[in-house]
Amino acid sequence: MNGLVVGSRRFRADREADWAALEALLDRADKGSLRRLSDDDILALPRLYRATVSSLSVARATSLDADLVAYLEALSARAYFLVYGVRGGVAGRAKRFVTRDLPAAVRGLALETWTAFALLALGTAIGFILVSRDPGWYGSFVPEGLAHGRNPEATTASLRATLGGGDDQPLAVLASFLFTNNARVAISAFALGFAAGVPTTLLILSTGTMLGAVVALFGARGIGIELGGWLMIHGTTELFAVVLAGAAGLRIGRAVIFPGTATRLAAAQVAGRQAATVMIGVVTMLFVAGGLEGFARQLVTATAARYVIAGTMLALWLGYFYLPRRAR
What we know:
- The protein is mainly alpha-helical.
- It folds into two domains: 86 residues; 229 residues, no CATH class.
- It is built from 13 helices and no strands.
- The two termini are 50 Å apart.
């Protein structure tokens, strides 16, 4: 019996400093949240927690006194919820996602984003060159259902008229239709990434050729600048979203082709989680683009004002995704 008492005292003497340090950190955190802890305290917290859990394991295994075991159990439980527990609630998690997780996921797709952008630019160049040389190519790139009368047979006056504001269709209905179409393109570019990224590549190229064909048609009529304002007031947001969706699909495709040391399924799952995070941002951007396309483009008819809105939106998206954030 005396041996157990001596062993308990020695055990406590050897490790009590860590328990007291952990308890002090927990008390400070309880009084004012983690903001009351310094960087050194936060770094020490996991080490002290592990030391306390180890002490609890030894105390249980060697049948030390029940009061000591109960104390260590309570201390370990308090530390567990501080180290691993969910803090901040739904609002806190949402704030972290918006301010840190989403931009970090987008920045993590830098290679794929540049690749998707290059594919879109290549498709645009192909569509522009082919239609400039032979307008007969226009119908191959721009379906009549999307052209709405904007084709080589239309007069310059009628083409210019389509770039103005106002539309017989109610703005809310128009915005809904445009958002659905844009979302289909972006989500398809993401979803088809599982097929080694090949369909995603073709879809992005196809989107580019359509854009290039339209630019060639209007540019040949001397109204390319007006077209740029008409397209870019929503296009800086919409095309950026399509590029990010394509990048997400390409990231999954790259994981399938080059899984590294992991299995293809495991690599695709890891890439899929990152890509899915990016797609939440893409869907948000498409909502914004739908509003700009269905409302702002119809209400703002001055070309200069359209360019200002387009440039402002592009600067906001680039700043949100790529400006460095202070490490915590």
